[in-house]
Design brief:
The chain has about 475 residues and is of the alpha+beta class. It has 11 helices and 12 strands. It has a 5-stranded antiparallel β-sheet, with helices on both faces. A 5-stranded mixed β-sheet has the order 7-9-10-12-11, with helices on one face. The radius of gyration is 52 Å and the shape is rod-shaped. It starts with a helix and ends in a 5-residue tail after the last strand. About 0% of the residues have low confidence.
Length: about 475
């Protein structure tokens, strides 16, 4: 396995899931092991303490009743003290009220004085119990009390100090710890195997998705270019989103290819015409001046047409850029319309089209003057060019507190209903022959729509074939960035 493969595995989701399983499993196992052993130790120590305390209290009662602390002649009490010491592998000391050790089952400290916190508290009538975990023993003190016949009060005459070894308990705990550790190691190996299985199972849908995407990329997919991984809800949702994105990308790619094809065709057509005209001139000798002049005029017209297509394409490319390229200034829309119609008036007069501007109120808006001028010019120029001899074009401007509204209405040839949804497509022409006669490129409305959308506006069209067309434009007075 190469170093790159190992690095990729450590970065993979499979390794992270496996690590998560192991960490959670191991930590849980350690917590359970410590918790169980601690609880067991407390329970065993508590049971041992209760058991020894019970036996010690019985013995203490007998010591008091037989006044053994002042008279050590009772062999029964002596025997019971030794027996208690042997049964629990411990040490028992009998202490009088002067802190003197009267009896010691180890025969080490008899007649010596013992002063400790536990003994002092015991001689005050308080029962104590303490577990020394480090030295493995339980130490408890039981006060020896009897009632004063004169005052009926309890009188402490001594203390019984019992120290019990917990070595057997510690040995059992050590054994349990070793067994628990072995069990945890076995559980860890099982958990590792389970983690490997689950991590592979959980990441398998992602692997299938990656393989399917690779097949789609290489064109080998059997699902018609669709991602079909529905093993779980998440992968099904990702597949659906991918298919939508892929479908949109295919649509964009198809549109791009169609656009390139249209551009190539549109640019090639004038060049072809010019070549035919030039070849006709070159193929004749002693060409008459009139014919030569006529052909040169035709070549000039084709050059103008080529130039218009290129300019429109450049405008469209600029429109496709981010709206951040807009040069927003405060512009008088009334004055802007006056200038546009003044420039287009000669074209209208040439076709005997009546061009009318109606402004209902002064309108000032934040717009890119160059791009908006291009959009409105295209609408008005189309209304003139696709009109009838002696027709009319009516341009109106109105506004409210938020938007200004522009209407461009004509009495022209209109647009067929089945073409209304396509008029904003690049190079789309309703009547190709008529468009070429008047010099249309099929890009004007695409440029217009792009410009209006860049201003966060909207454009709508209403048309009846043979009767005329109405374009309505709505643009915010204040630019929304």
């Amino acid at each position: 396995m190469s170093g790159k493969v190992i690095r990729n595995y450590f970065k993979s989701l499979k390794f992270r899931l496996l690590s998560l399983f192991l960490i959670l499993g191991i930590l849980s196992g350690i917590a359970v092991r410590i918790g169980v052993l601690t609880a067991y130790e407390k329970r065993v120590i508590n049971n041992r303490s209760i058991e020894v305390l019970s036996q010690s209290k019985i013995l203490a009662t007998q010591i008091v009743s037989m006044d053994y602390i002042h008279n050590l002649s009772s062999e029964t009490i002596t025997s019971q003290l030794q027996q208690l010491s042997q049964i629990y592998d411990g040490r028992v000391m009998l202490i009088d009220d002067t802190f003197r050790i009267v009896e010691d089952t180890y025969d080490l400290d008899e007649n010596r004085t013992i002063i400790s916190e536990e003994v002092v508290r015991c001689l005050r009538g308080e029962e104590t119990s303490r577990y020394d975990k480090e030295n493995h023993y339980i130490e408890m003190t039981i006060p020896l009390t009897r009632k004063n016949l004169d005052t009926s009060e309890s009188l402490v005459i001594g203390a019984l100090l019992v120290s019990v070894s917990t070595d057997s308990i510690v040995a059992n705990l050590d054994d349990m710890r070793q067994r628990a550790l072995v069990i945890q190691l076995i559980s860890g190996m099982c958990l590792f195997a389970l983690g490997m299985f689950l991590s592979m199972r959980l990441t398998n849908p992602l692997k299938k998705m990656a393989d399917s995407i690779e097949e789609i990329q290489m064109g080998k997919d059997a699902n018609d270019g669709k991602l079909m991984v529905t093993d779980c809800y998440e992968t099904a949702r990702i597949s659906d989103r991918f298919n939508r994105l892929f479908g949109r990308m295919k649509l964009l790619d198809d549109s791009r290819q169609e656009f390139v094809s249209n551009v190539s065709h549109e640019l090639k057509t004038p060049l072809t015409s010019m070549k035919v005209l030039a070849d006709s001139l070159n193929g004749q000798e002693d060409v008459p001046v009139e014919l030569y002049r006529e052909f040169m005029v035709d070549i000039g017209n084709e050059i103008e047409r080529e130039n218009k297509i290129i300019n429109d394409l450049l405008s469209l490319v600029r429109m496709d850029k981010s709206a951040a390229d807009l040069n927003i200034t405060s512009v008088s829309i009334n004055e802007l319309l006056d200038l546009i119609l003044k420039r287009l008036k000669p074209i209208a007069e040439k076709k005997h089209v009546d061009l009318v501007l109606e402004s209902f109120r002064p309108v000032t808006a934040e717009v890119d003057e160059v791009k908006l001028t291009l959009a409105i010019s295209n609408l008005v120029e189309n209304a003139i060019k696709y009109n009838r001899e002696g027709g009319w074009v009516h341009v109106s401007l109105n506004a409210d507190y938020q938007y200004f509204y522009l209407k461009v209405e004509d009495s022209g040839i209109g647009i067929p209903e089945d073409s209304l949804d396509h008029i904003y497509e690049r190079f789309y022409r309703v009547d190709k022959s008529h468009s070429r006669e008047i010099g249309g490129t099929g890009l004007g409305l695409a440029i217009t729509r792009s410009s209006i959308l860049m201003h966060r506006g909207a454009i709508k069209v209403f048309s009846t074939e043979g009767e005329g067309t109405l374009f309505t434009v709505r643009i915010p007075l204040n630019y929304i960035s």
